[in-house]
Amino acid sequence: MAAKKSAHSHIRLLGLDPGLVKTGWGIVDSDGVRLRHVACGTIRPKVSDEISDRLAALYDALAAVIAEWRPDGAAVEETFVNRNPASALKLGLARGVVLLAPARAGLPVAEYHNRTVKKSVVGAGRASKDQIGLMVSHLLPGSQPDSEDAADALAIAICHAHHEGTGSRWRATAVGSAA
Question: Please, what is the average pLDDT of the chain?
């Protein structure tokens, strides 16, 4: 889904790596060519709380991040299917909240498969967490994610910036050739 601004203007993108124990978030600014790290962090609801309270805490924390940093669009990593049905269900609940928070804030929300994120950032769809962390540090100098989840969220934002930038250029070319 396209962010609100054109390919040649500055856009702020929020990447989200969903989890019920830890949800990573990362924000990058993109001007279509260059990326700049803005902020990142990890939301850690209390594991001892009831699941409904953890989901509410996750939503509230995401709403606060969105209100503070005012992104133009968001991207969420698609969740791989876990062999443990109970774990998969809990992760699905967290993912629902992670999709809901930016949508309720009026942001367009894109979803990317984890292999697409890895290919966009590292160049290989089976990249390790360490490789992702190294490339995020290289692509976003000065970023210091507080967890692998925050690094993954920045990678998702980078992936979205690349895909959004390419899509915007294609749309601009199509409009230009139709005129």
Answer: 89
